[in-house]
Amino acid sequence: MTATVPGWVEALATHSPPAMDPVVGHLVVVAAHPDDETLAAAGFLRAVHAAGGTVELVVATDGEAAFPDAPPADRAALGRTRRAELHAALEALGLPGTRVTWLGLPDSGLAHHEDELTGALAPLLRSADVCLAPWTGDPHPDHATAGRAAERAAPVRAHRFAYPIWMWPWLRPDDPAVPWATACEHRLDEAARHAKAAAIGRFVSQLAPAPDGGPPILPPEVLAHFGTGRELFFRVPRPDSAPAARFADLYADGADPWDTRTSWYEERKRAVVAACLPRRHYAHAAEPGCGLGGLTRVLAGRCTAVTASDYTPAAVAATRETTAGLPGVTVLEAALPDPHTVPTGVDLVVLSEVLYYLSPAAVDAVADRVAQALVPGGDVVLAHWRGWPAEAPQDAAATHRRLLDDPRFVRLVEHVDEEFLLHVLRRP
Questions:
Q1: CA distances from 382 to 228, 412, 423 (A)
Q2: 214, 235, 256: which is the final residue of a domain?
Q3: Which of 88, 79, 75 is nearest to 59 (CA)?
Q4: The domain spanning residue 59 has which CATH number?
Q5: Does one domain contain both 224 and 281?
Q6: How far is 79 from 83, CA to CA, in rounded Å?
Q7: Which of 77, 143, 167, 254 matches a 20 to 30 Å C-alpha distance to 326?
Q8: For 347-397, what is each residue's pLDDT tens digit?
Q9: Are residues 263 and 226 in the same domain?
């Protein structure tokens, strides 16, 4: 073991991860073995339940190979015991009715069944709002496999988070593998700490000495890492840009998925964007990802020409209807980083609620296109919700940073409030 509890507590204080939101609707927790979910996330499961959410568990193995030298009959008996222990732990947490799906895959052999596990998880995760699974960097092969399978199986609409277990005793807080940049935490109150301790105590098979008299699977120095009252999770961002099909579904049947026509957030953001434009008038603006055209109408009042675009046919049709009769507005069906979305010679580019849906590589390609197409002295507006959409590879801050750090642009305006982040940049 390489890490101490005080070392990790100090690291948590230093990094100060944001709080994990327990208001998640439907939470599906994937575990490689019975007790993983309790060790890593018992407090958070209680909080989700208390907030009115539904908690569901999927356990890949029965944990029957905890003592690898045991004969087959003893392994089978241990698997039955560990199933019973998990149900007892859920009762101790106040979650006795929690649905548990047992997949019965081989313990300590998940790596040979990753595709099978992925296929089994896909239908079980289909309705999840949040998927919580083992961290793929955890130094246990079954945990890493379960994490990879869950990442592959989770639907695009689900927020994905990972939890560590053996990271705590086996890695150091300064290990470069620990993704502090995407970390968040849940803090347990006194009642939750007692409930979690009671739940862990139900896993007697893991706390007692091994059948041959050896040390337990979870000795006191390991258990201490799970009694600090803090649970750590890592956001698992999408590796690629959000798929076009997702937005086609959202805009189906004339839907307004983000209430852009009626919400105060959208109305206020459009007003702030307009107020932050440094010039009274622009010759030609580009607005990729125009959605239903609410901001397009605002831009049309400040620009001689506007080229709006979206890669969802329903959104394009809606924007054309919204802007019908406005002079100089052209609406294209095209997606970033297609050069047609930012025509050469524009003096304003507005990227609102669109850029964080692109992969980092695609964002860099957009930056290249904007730098090429924008006339000297032209402006770029970046405006994004400060949350993190499930479909997005990056949040607003990380996305904006890629252009803020680009020497081809200089910062003119920065607006940060509790809901959205806005920057205006200029090409010198």
A1: 40, 12, 5
A2: 235
A3: 79
A4: 3.40.50.10320
A5: no
A6: 6
A7: 254
A8: 999 999 999 999 999 999 999 999 999 999 999 999 999 999 999 999 999
A9: no
Residue 248 and residue 196 share a domain: no
Q: What is the pLDDT of residue 248?
A: 86
What CATH number corresponds to the domain at position 317? 3.40.50.150
So what's the pLDDT on residue 2? 66
**Global model pTM greater than 0.85:** yes
Which of 401, 362, 350, 129 is CA-nearest to residue 244? 362
Domain count, the chain: 2
Shared domain for 185 and 278, answered yes or no, is no
Structure-token pair, residue 284: 């030609």
Residues 186 and 252 in one domain: no
Q: Which domain holds residue 203?
A: 5-235
Same domain? 310 vs 417: yes
Q: Give Cα separations from 410 to 170, 272, 413 (angstroms).
A: 44, 20, 10
Domain endpoint, select from 218, 235, 252: 235
Closest CA to 286 of 335, 350, 345: 350
Whether the Cβ atoms of residue 260 and residue 252 lie closer than 8 Å to each other: no
3-state DSSP assignment of residue 185: strand
Q: Are 45 and 37 in contact (CB under 8 A)?
A: yes
CA distance 428 to 421: 23
Query: 394 and 349 in one domain?
Result: yes
**CA 235 – CA 16 distance, rounded (Å):** 15
From the first residue on, what is the mean pLDDT of each consecutive set of 10 residues in the chain (428 residues)?
86 96 97 98 98 98 93 94 98 97 96 98 98 97 98 96 97 96 97 98 96 92 96 95 89 89 96 98 98 97 97 94 96 95 98 97 97 98 96 95 97 96 98
With beta carbons less than 8 A apart as the criterion, state whether 142 and 22 touch. Answer: no
For 202-263, where are the alpha helices, taking DSSP H only? 204-207, 220-223, 244-250
